[in-house]
Amino acid sequence: MDEKYIAALIDRYKKGTCTPEEAVLVESLHIHTYTPQGNPINDAAKMAVWARLNTKNPFSIKKRMLWAIPSVAALLLVAFGLFLKPRKSTSSTTQPIKTADIHPGYNQATITLADGSKISLDSAKAGIRVNDERIEYQSGELIKSVILSGERRKEEVGAEGSLPTSISLSTPKGGQYQIVLSDGTIVWLNAATTLKYPSKFSGNRREVELEGEAFFDVAQMKSKPFIVRSKGQQIDVMGTTFNLRAYAEDGSEITTLVSGSIQVRSQDTKQNTANTRLLKPTEQASVNNGEIIAKQVDVQEAISWKLGFFFFKNTPFSTVMNQIGRWYDLDIVYNGEIPKKTFSGKMKRDVSLASVLKFLDGSGIRFQVDGNKLVID
To answer: From CA 185, how far away is CA 208, in angstroms rounded?
Structure first.
């Protein structure tokens, strides 16, 4: 991704002539710290991007674009209070927060090595990268060398070099982290997520496992497909960008394709048959009990977390609460039935819980914080 390519992409974005997936790429450039090959993007190139992007009003873009990149001031206005669409309450019913205010999530994660040992990662760092048997911060600072040594190395490795080692990267509720895998694939982990991967990819395929939610920017290798496994499905990738949400509590596993192409495979537990679906950009596949349902979507809703936002578009109340609970490290408790409401809106994820509840105040739903629980009446 050189400066000329980025500049041309920005120009097309500002003119409203780039594709939806190119628009998403532009909107995510500000948190891309590495190219698909794992090399740092030139600082001059990044500065040139933002200089060109800021020369015009970012909202002067054709309506067909997914979303423009808003200014900081606009971000403060484009919040739940302006966009919430549930019925209005005649009076405020939200209970005051009686405990210390709860802050949003931040960079935090843990590495689990093959022997079960754990390493807590530096919260001041944005992510890590796998460089053969070395696990490093993106600055190049060594975290751990996982190379085999001594007699075990002689017995297990042989002439082909070191064996790949199984590693897990996990974020807790209220955490997020980024990793560049050994092939240059970049993965962003959302809260309460675990990615299992090898120290290096051997053989004729690249395989990882995911529980939770992550955005993948897969390095293209035509002779070595990339495979993502989750509890209910398998995703076959050649080189593309997509988001996978596979939280156990959500029931369905949701895959949203931004660019390229992927094939979603699942096992129908009722019919005992295998299902497959090839996705095109801006399509989303929902897998539940092996059944695959695909539809066209606004990909912003799926990848907004990666860009630092909550973004809802007629989103069920329970889904909204699950996202808030994971990001603010809260257990969601319902006193009674789950409200049958939907929400539409966009809000930065770096605000306190009190700010979120304040904007939700007009929904007619009562909220109360009790320790690490968010109680909903």
So the answer is: 11
